[in-house]
Amino acid sequence: MVMEKLGISGDLDGDKLLDRLGTEDIENLFVDTEPSLEEVKEAFDVFDENNDGYIDAEELEKILCKLGIVEVPKGECQRMITVFDDNGDGRIEFREFIKLVENMFG
After folding, report:
1. Boundaries of each EF-hand domain copy (predicted)?
2. CB within 8 A of 100, min separation 6: which ones?
3. How far is CA 94 from CA 2, 19, 23, 98, in A?
4. What is the block-wise mean pLDDT of the chain (106 residues), using blocks of 10 residues?
5. Distance between CA 71 and CA 85 in Å, rounded?
6. Helix extents (H) in 1-93
7. How far, CA to CA in Å, does 56 sit from each of 35, 63, 74, 90, 105?
8. End-to-end Cα spacing for the chain
């Protein structure tokens, strides 16, 4: 559903994302209503490029660049992850990602 809002279906090739998305599109993903758990999972899966169940600094850096949001050094991405990394493993798991999204709707 999240990807449908962005007009994306099928594989998420980085170049195709750049052609279709802008910063405003990302910001407006969840504007209408609080996202369902399914939508949050779909968004998580976009960031979890290697499908290991975690978002690490390298994946965060790649997706932020692909989406054209910002160019952020890997070290800064790690600091961003630390904010929501409850168990201190240096990665964001789905439960922690849910917390991040919930904070967006605070």
Report:
1. 35-70, 72-106
2. 84, 92
3. 16, 28, 23, 6
4. 45 47 53 80 92 95 80 86 94 94 77
5. 22
6. 2-5, 14-20, 23-27, 37-47, 57-66, 74-84
7. 23, 11, 10, 7, 23
8. 22
Give me the residue label for tokens 């050094």. 73
Rounded CA-CA distance 56/34 in Å is 25
Judging by beta carbons within 10 Å of its beta carbon (0-12, 13-18, 19+), is residue 37 exposed, middle or buried?
exposed
The model scores a pTM over 0.70: no
How many Å apart are CA 70 and CA 42, to the nearest integer? Answer: 21
Which tokens in the block code for residue 86? 């409850």
